[in-house]
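thought: fold this chain, then report.
action: predict
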Amino acid sequence: MILGMIVLGCFLYIIMINPGKQRQHPILDVKYFAHRGFHHVDEIPENSMAAFRRAKELGYGIELDVQLTKDHVMVVHHDYDLRRTCGIKKNICDLTYEELCRYRLMGTEERIPRFIDVLKEIDGKVPLLVELKMETLHTKLCRLAAEALDHYQGLYCMESFHPYALYWFKKHRPNVIRGQLSEQFLKEKERKNIPAYCIMKNLLTNFITKPDFIAYHYKYKNCLPLKICRKFYHIPIYGWTFRSQGAYMENKNDFQGFIFERFHIRP
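observation:
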């Protein structure tokens, strides 16, 4: 009885992390994405127009983060608050875009940019990996980002930690390449929603969202869900975030894509 339940559980697990038939697309051939643009702590802040211009000059693909202000303007910023980047104890969702423009990034003259302005700046010159920052099931960000990207002429794909963002794109923009972000949350001391994190770290929504690639914290490259995805489903797996050439060289054979920062990657 117990053995049968274990076998059934293993079978269901393998079925649930099945991403389905893999698609071919030029964006999936892009190997290198500069994390939040090509930035330096003291000179060029992350997710700034300066960081995106530098990545474009170097010819790297760009990974960036999109979220909404209080007045539903899409801005490019990783953290949900401004403590680390601007030294202010305020949340982006509590500020209008006009209010947000008052604050400088990392003590520089750079401000948090609008997503549409970043798209204009990049102008299709390098590929984009667009992460949608969602905390709830509210999908306004998905709709607004999709509408902005509908008019973009460059190469891009989307990714998110939130599976529902992938599901929205699967349903409303099925041609857009989508990626599931994940990591071993509890090992990284993320304890806000343990049941949800257990589902996400094990990629248990793959059978619903059908991601085209997985983006996973590279130091967990040998965790069970990635082993199964590699062996059985052959889905492209991207590693994040590499911060040295040594880390890249040590792991270069384990990933199809690399999200990196603060160094010039040498293949």
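thought: worth noting. Strands lie at 32-35, 61-68, 74-76, 128-132, 156-160, 178-182, 213-217, 237-242, 257-260.
final: tokens above.
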